[in-house]
């Protein structure tokens, strides 16, 4: 059996990381974490964006505390940490 050589295409990995299916999955996971934390009514918001291309350019979705009440709730109860399982 001959030697097998694999040549990776970094640009293809970059395209895969920003494919609509990947972005949709990440945003859906963030939405589930947001809802488990209490949703927009409790002051938790989501956002998603692509990181810098050096060289990865990974897409990321975040759930943040958008109000002072959410900040206090998260500080007291670790709400975001406890809500992470909803994103699995």
Largest sheet: 2 strands, antiparallel
Regions with little confidence, pLDDT below 50 for 5+ residues: none
Strand order of the largest sheet: 1-2
Mean pLDDT: 94
What fraction of residues sit in β-strands?
15-25%
Number of continuous helical runs: 4
Distance between the termini: 42 Å
Rg, Å, rounded: 18 Å
Judged by helices, strands and strand pairing, the structural class is alpha+beta
What order do the helices and strands follow? HHEEHH
Give an overview of the whole structure:
- There is one protein chain.
- A hairpin with an 8-residue loop joins strand 1 (about 45-50) and strand 2.
- The chain has a two-stranded antiparallel sheet.
- The protein is about 45% helix and about 15% strand.
- It is built from four helices and two strands; from the N terminus they run H-H-E-E-H-H.
- By secondary structure, the chain is an alpha+beta fold.
- The radius of gyration is 18 Å and the shape is elongated.
- It has helices spanning about 10-15, 20-35, 70-75, 80-85, and strands spanning about 45-50, 60-65.
- About 10% of the residues are buried.
- The longest helix has 18 residues, at about 20-35.
- The mean pLDDT is about 95.
């Amino acid at each position: 059996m001959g030697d097998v050589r694999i040549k990776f295409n970094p640009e293809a990995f970059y395209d895969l990381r920003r494919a609509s299916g990947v972005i949709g999955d990440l945003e859906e996971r963030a939405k589930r974490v947001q809802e488990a934390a209490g949703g927009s009514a409790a002051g938790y918001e989501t956002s998603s964006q692509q990181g810098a291309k050096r060289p990865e350019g990974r897409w990321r979705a975040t759930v943040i505390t958008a109000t002072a009440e959410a900040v206090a709730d998260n500080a007291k109860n670790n709400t975001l940490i406890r809500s992470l399982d909803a994103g699995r």
